[in-house]
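Good morning N.,

You mentioned wanting to compare the apo and holo forms, so I went ahead and generated the holo version with DAU. This is what I fed in:
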Amino acid sequence: MNILVTGGAGFIGSNFIDLTRQERGDIDITVLDAGNYAADIEGFATRFPEVELIRADLADAEVTDRAVCESDLVVHFAAESHNDNSLHSPWPFVQSNIIGTYNVIEACRRHDVRLHHISSDEVYGDLEIDDPARFTESTAYNPSSPYSATKAGSDMLVRAWVRSFGLRATISNCSNNYGPYQHVEKFIPRQITNVLTGARCKLYGTGLNVRDWIHVDEHNAAVWTIIDKGEIGRTYLIGADGEKNNISVVRTILELMGREPDDFDHVTDRPGHDLRYAVDATALREELGWAPRFADFRTGLADTIEWYRDNRSWWEPQKTAVEATYAAREEVIS
Ligand code: DAU
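and this is what came out, ligand included:
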């Protein structure tokens, strides 16, 4: 089997390749990746010596078509993914997430290639903090940010291509991922690397916003379950019952790293900041038999801290620029 992994040099895509190599050695993998700031192009050949990397933007329809044409399956991770960036510069999100996905599905349609489209629980908007409800596959789309609106748009394109053209596709919408190789702009690696560089952790607003955390390996194992057993045309939610507010995540990081529990600042809130995400993954569990099989959150977080401690050369070159960008956008409020 030949699979094409778009965005395979990024956080979730590269961990997907790791898991695939460990558990499915007979699969040939090709990666199509634009190599933007969040991709690790330099380290790719060392980490994946036998994987072919095509460095191209999905907006390039011809290259995308050629890569898709030679594949039996496309797993489409490539996306601009950081909400804060989308609030300051939305266009790359439209280009990558909408135009890029359009080119992928058109190529899959032309060559009748099976597609799995990776998406986000953010397409559903947010929930009240004290609402017992969680997102399900039938929750109405209600995205808040330019990022989540473009992911919602990409999902709609895939759904329309399934219905109108018989595209053989499944979609998954996952909750917040954490684990090794995540860019330091994201919440958990930012706080870990702040501690490692002697800075204070930074919480947007009250810190009471809730995210539903899942280890990246858990996510990727669920993606394989959907590829293996999912019904064409269906959407599956992926989550591992990991709801936590941001302040409690920061306090756990501080505790695991031997720092004082209040060693954080409240800083300017994110405009339109979604309050709470929570995923009900019943369909995935009951219909497809998926269950989390890796570490619980605290153990996964401790492993992730160890990874950032041991891999300073991987993240240090990005850290100064990321913090300079944040410093220009945020002020300490308490
Ligand atoms: O829910 C899935 C989504 O999770 C993915 O689709 C996105 O690609 C991914 O970036 C993530 O979105 P979030 O906006 O939830 O992730 P982020 O890491 O940016 O922030 C997590 C929470 O932490 C959010 O409530 C904002 C807050 N935050 C973030 C940063 C960077 C802070 O309080 N301080 C920070 O420094």
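Residues 81-83, 120-122, 175-176, 186-187, 190, 202-204, 209, 211, 246, 270, 277 surround DAU (CB under 6 Å).

Happy to go through it together on a call whenever suits you.

Best,
F.
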